[in-house]
Write a structure and sequence with these properties.
Layout: E1 5-10, H1 16-24, E2 28-33, E3 38-40, E4 45-47, H2 50-57, E5 62-63, H3 72-81, E6 85-89, H4 97-100, E7 107-111, E8 119-120, H5 123-129, E9 134-141, E10 151-158, H6 165-189, E11 204-205, H7 221-230, E12 237-241, E13 244-254, E14 266-270, E15 273-277, E16 282-290, E17 296-297, H8 298-303
Parallel strand pairs: 1-2, 1-6, 2-5, 6-7, 8-11
Antiparallel strand pairs: 3-4, 7-9, 9-10, 12-13, 13-16, 14-15, 15-16, 16-17
Length: 313
């Protein structure tokens, strides 16, 4: 049987396991589409995407159009590849109808949520931020709407109580590659029929804004703790102390009494952590990062300063 001829479109580290799984499973990856190289780091040197790095290492042709919506030549090149299927994983560029209709079997997307929950750009962080007990991946037939297409296959997992944006990212990247390989044979032969989403249950995972990283100590301690976990490793929750910006890497809801202290007030400081009054309850900060320094434990942070009566925010 002739291997399925696929075109892969993806950009960040999240997409790498899916491309690797296609290669390992013997699929004919005719080309890889990824976003153009971008300036990164202190030197602002052009840096290729993780997907491009893997494709080049495997000798797969790479295409990097600025847009597939407006670039007619890029659309023509895609048609010339004559793919059976286009697989899209966190590509980051919108696909017009002309592209969606180019492959013989259409385009499928590996999406990091249990659709219709968390359609959109940041489903991983939004799931942690909302306190979801479950997440997962969907293999979805793409259409013109934002993550509205019917679902071929889904795999779920339970979230750990200490789940972070980073740990969930890695779990779902691996789960996505497994789901993709499980779904492809049935997509190829037509035996796997996609199920329409119930749009009345849809929620939207809007893109993360750096401004969301600022801790509002008037919020309940539980909400702040979720914010800290969701934004690890990016953009990292932050607060301030005496005008100094502090990034908060790890925290947990504490049993310490705030005794009516205003939100943001340090009510206890010990090697185990810094207990801070919130709008409801108390948050124990266990790992934080002063400006221009590396992340450190609360114990190390307290070696250099006293926080009696201090107030964050």
């Amino acid at each position: 049987m002739t291997p399925l001829r696929v075109v892969f479109a993806g950009t960040p580290e999240f997409a790498v396991p899916c491309l690797q799984a296609l290669i390992d499973s013997g699929y004919d990856v005719a080309a890889v589409y990824t976003q153009p190289d971008r300036p990164a780091g202190r030197g602002r040197r052009l840096q290729q995407s993780p997907v491009k790095s893997l494709a080049l290492a495997q000798g797969i042709p790479v295409h990097q159009p600025e847009s597939l919506k407006r670039d007619r030549e890029a659309q023509a090149r895609l048609r010339d590849l004559a793919p059976d299927l286009m697989i899209v994983v966190a590509y980051g560029l919108l696909l017009p109808v002309a592209v969606l209709e180019t492959p013989r079997l259409g385009c499928v997307n590996v999406h990091a949520s249990l659709l219709p929950r968390w359609r959109g750009a940041a489903p991983i962080q939004r799931a942690v931020l909302a306190g979801d007990s479950q997440s997962g991946v969907c293999i979805m037939a793409m259409e013109a709407g934002l993550d509205t297409g019917p679902v071929y296959h889904r795999l779920a997992l339970e979230l750990d109580p200490r789940e972070t944006g980073g740990t969930l990212h890695d779990k779902l990247a691996a789960l996505g590659s497994r789901a993709l390989i499980e779904a492809l044979p049935g997509i190829a032969d037509g035996s796997r029929i996609p199920e329409p989403q119930d749009s009345t249950l849809a929620t939207y995972a809007h893109k993360i804004d750096k401004a969301e990283a600022a801790i509002d100590w008037g919020q309940p301690a539980l909400a702040i703790e979720r914010q800290v976990r969701a934004f690890d490793p990016w953009p990292v929750a932050q607060t301030s102390l005496n005008g100094e910006v502090l990034r908060v890497w790890s925290a947990q809801v504490s049993d310490a009494e705030s005794e009516g202290a205003p939100p943001g007030t340090v009510v206890a400081a010990a090697r185990s952590g810094i207990a801070v009054a919130a709008g409801a309850g108390t948050l124990l900060i266990t790992r934080l990062q002063p400006a221009a320094k590396r992340p450190m434990s609360a114990a190390d942070f307290l070696n250099a300063r006293r926080l009696d009566g201090a107030r964050f925010g």
